[in-house]
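Q: I'm teaching a short session on how sequence maps to structure, and I want students to see two examples side by side rather than one. Could you give me a first protein with its sequence written out and its structure tokens following it? Keep the formatting plain so it prints cleanly on a handout.
A: Of course. Example one:
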Amino acid sequence: MYYFPLQPPYFLLLVGFLTALTSGIALSGTLKVIVQKWPSRTENTKPSSSLKQLFVPFLGITAGVCLFMSSGLEIFGFPSLLALGVGLPISLLTCLLVWLQLGSMLTFVQTKGMQSLDLDTEG
């Protein structure tokens, strides 16, 4: 009789998903507060101070996505070590690229204004 020592990590998949979801909601709320405070700022304020406030919620999203990706690969039959070896670099690289894009978009919006992101209007 063949015995599976570990069941697929459905619980870890759910924990990773909920961690990423709740951290995303926190990131959204923090970003809204930062953008609402922009008109009252002086021109000397750098966008890097805004990124410091967003780092902890984004770190939670990154951890949740890594856990979700690795657990999902393990559910689909990957061995634990291989699932971690594939899921971790993919998740970290994707989150790093999103972080860099978020920083550049915050800088762009702060210098050019929020109207520069409106793609629907002609002109």
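Q: Perfect. Now a second example for contrast.
A: Example two:
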Amino acid sequence: MPVTTLDGHQVHVDAEGFLTDLSEWDDELATVLATQIGLTLTDEHRAVLRFLRDDFAQRGETATLRRASAGSGVPVKDLFRLFPQKPAKKMAYVAGLPKPVGCV
């Protein structure tokens, strides 16, 4: 598995840059990952990320956009505002989770 260094953090990633060792993720790394894709995290972003991490711990798979919306209470249109263009993929990336099934 490739290892990359992001702002001083050595992390294991797949070919697309998604973390492969979920234990390497923390709030500081989330900020670094978000910056890499042009996002500045707010409390609203962080609430979604917390939901995604908790949901993954319970279900063992990354939430789809609809499940993230329903579970976090954030409407889909707001997820698109927070994580523009490909919200499910970007949310998973910043949350340090695998890309959701069905994402291209």
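Q: What should students look for in example two?
A: Point them to this: The first strand starts at residue 3 and ends at 6. Also worth mentioning: The chain is about 50% helix and 10% strand.
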